[in-house]
Write the structure tokens for this entry.
Amino acid sequence: MNNTQPVIIAYDISDNKKRNAVYKILKKWRLDGQKSVHECRLKQWQAEELFLQINEIIDQDTDCLMIAWLETHRQVLYKGIGKPVINNNLWEWSM
């Protein structure tokens, strides 16, 4: 069993240098993403490690970081030109 769970990571970082550093870290972990929102599949310890790595970079007075676990039994809705990376092989829900 893989034991990874779907996670959405979002951030709002004002400093360009810090934002680029966080983006480079997330590129190693993510399935897909856009500017400041990324889809990942992580184990609990991986999410904690990622949180600690990013926490070292951001300024808690001006920046924001959110890691949200998704419930696998709920459907994820998509709209727009992007293609969903997460498919029924990774999710257990009925459409």
Remarks:
- DSSP finds two helices and four strands in the chain.
- The domain at 1-95 is CATH 3.30.70.240 (Alpha-Beta Plaits).
- The longest strand covers residues 5-12.
